[in-house]
Amino acid sequence: MPAKNSAEADARPAFFGADPWREEIAELDGRCSVVEIEAPREPYEALQMGLRDPIRLRGWHFVGDGVSDARGDRVKALVVLVAGRSIETTAIHHPDDPPCLWSDQLQAWLATSYPNADGRTEGFGGRAWRTYVAAFVKAGFDVLTLDKRGHGISGGATDSNCNEQAEDIFRALDALETGRGARMVTPSGELLEGASAAGRLLAGRSARGIPVVVSGASQGCMVTCWAMHKNCVGPCDFDRPDPAKRDPYGYNLKAALLMAPFGGGLGYRPPEDSLVEAARREEFNVQMSPTSEVLAGISQWPALFIGRGLWDFSESLEGSLACFRRARGPRMILAVRASHGEGEWGAANTRYMQMTEFATAALSGRGVEGWAEPTSVRDIVAAAPASWSEWAKPKGLRASL
Predict the structure, then answer these.
(1) Entry pTM
(2) Alpha-carbon torsion angle 283, 284, 285, 289, nearest 10
(3) Which of 46, 81, 229, 382 is the most exposed place for a label (fewest CB within 10 A)?
(4) In the CATH scheme, what is the code of domain 7-392?
């Protein structure tokens, strides 16, 4: 964990208030602690690489003002936000750097790659993702967002074991309560670790008692799915040589918010993806994609939100509707006229997809009032707002953003 004046100390929300970024997350710097959590190696690293030393998971924790419960009282609640593949907490993203570039040869928009001949930075930067972090903090939630193992400022030699990344959520909650393996730098620059860090960010709530909403996009959605399954149904650790059945963890998870979703599992993906996932688990001790266990267990989740682009490749609309129909608690599904990543949606669609209203209602076991549930894929498509992503139309036909 860096000291206040080290180079890494600049990796705080305030950094993004400078030109040219000028992101709203900078306004919340005074609420943010930089946190570090110790975690063990995942099975691939331990069994196939022979690595045994622990790694460190790093990111941000914001303190909110509390969320209104059913009686109108302010309660402390935590949102754990898990970003998608390649999205990192502190990754810069120039506002003039679009996620897609026009190809005159193909007469089509192509995703920006990194690096490329135009000198672009990574198109899937963290700018759009950080708007979700800011929205939840402004809605009163505490927010914990850590770079996944193998990503960004976190440690780890591999980046695809979503089952282990889900386990890291519970490790982080426990560490914030006990202080074991936890270090943090507070907004004032105070370095806390071990006993001095114990309970500081939970404000007297226990790891299993504080209301928690878990949300993730794309790979972060896979992590969210496995975390909910572990907590509400029981672990399915297929990345281990002899996975043992265990009881549900029983933390106070109130809702899952799935973005760029994979909750329908491999049955709603191309057939070859099942072979790829089988190879990951059998040959490399890596468990990434949700399978039928997750879909079968959704009925035991307390609440479910699904947000997606209409032509998202992550799963078919039929798959998302199948997830939605299995939910027995408060549920909601929204779609926008866009593709997979929120970075390609445009500002209006990103604002529309803020999940704070549903998350707030779900804390009290309620749904969003006045929202009409869809009964078919057609209903989902018809309800999408008339705000097209700029990259959904041919060049020259500007979208209403």
Answers:
(1) 0.93
(2) -100
(3) 382
(4) 3.40.50.1820
